[in-house]
Amino acid sequence: MGEKGHVEVKKVLHLGSLNNVMMMVFGKCYDFLNGDGVILEELVNEGYELLGVFNWNDHFPLLGWVDLQGVRRRCRCLVSKVNAFVGKIIVDHRMKRVSGGYVASETVGDFVDVLLDLEKENRLSDADMIAVLWEMIFRGTDTVAILLEWVLARMVLHPEMQTKAQCEIDEVVGSRPVSNNDIPNLPYLQCIVKEILRVHPPGPLLSWARLAIGDVCIGDKLIPAGTTAMVNMWAITHNANVWSEPDVFKPERFMEMERDMNIMGCDLRLAPFGAGRRVCPGKSMGLATVHLWFAQLLQGFQWFPCDEKPVDLSECLKLSMEMKSPLICKVVPRVVA
Ligand code: HEM
């Protein structure tokens, strides 16, 4: 802000979120300008790019052996790099145990430690561990960053809501830094996050595709075994038969009618983390992170539009549903009396 007179939040949120996940998963923060941090950022970006590529081979299996766009070659190359990167971290964790640097009953470990403790009973192979760890990094990073970008865009567009949420924080928290324990006492802030998850769900098609493994009846429709189905959560959350004024951004709706609505997968009118066996395993962590960071960003700063780059709410569906034009805004520190 000091240098340019405006801030593009996307990159900052992405790197912050990546380090948040890395800290929980590998117990380590990275410097994204040097060394391993640069490699990690390259691996994550290559993964997102490959998942977003339109691959002709998916639609014309006969082309299978040709690999026209080189997608398979790039995937193979990425897999071997991820195996080397994550494999080394697992080896480092094992060495620490051998040298007495980690004692399961005494040390607060990270997610790799949790998996290594499991190993004795369930004998997770290294390949399984690498897959689980990479999935956590991959699914946990952008969802949080993208959701926060939508939250901030809405705050810039609706200054009266921004002020209302800031007053709530000031009343409940005062001048000390807001913490995790304050979140249950900030109902309006939670309503804003719920309304963002309704209007701009980062995973609008949940996990993209599901396969019916047996015949299923939904209402009066038969879904035969072998059918590939997609759950369009975006369509449900924008359906006028389900939601009143679905296109209006109105956090207050959750203060009134839907005060206790559970968004963790029990109520299919709003299930932004999916539901059932494949529900998002990071939902509690993701929601806790978004609530806390949003509260901190509102407590510490005032968010304004940038005259040259007005907020554009157009959507772009990649692995997650992102803002088509990244948010650019002005940010001024707040002083709380
Ligand atoms: C606010 C942030 C997040 C949102 C909106 C979100 C949303 C989702 C959605 C919609 C799915 C598909 C569920 C389904 O098909 O039923 C999913 C899956 C998944 N999420 Fe999240 N997620 C978030 C944060 C996280 C975090 C922080 C992690 C891990 C640290 C994570 C890890 C995963 C994994 C591993 C899967 C795949 C589960 C499977 O295929 O069985 N997510 N997430």
From TrEMBL:
Cofactor(s) needed: heme
SUPFAM superfamilies, per database record: Cytochrome P450
InterPro entries assigned to the protein according to its UniProt record, in alphabetical order: Cyt_P450, Cyt_P450_CS, Cyt_P450_E_grp-I, Cyt_P450_sf, Cytochrome_P450_78A
Coiled coil (UniProt feature): none
Keywords assigned by UniProt, alphabetized: Heme, Iron, Metal-binding, Monooxygenase, Oxidoreductase
Membership in a protein family: Belongs to the cytochrome P450 family.
Protein name from the UniProt record: Cytochrome P450 78A5
Biological source species: Stylosanthes scabra
Lineage: Eukaryota, Viridiplantae, Streptophyta, Embryophyta, Tracheophyta
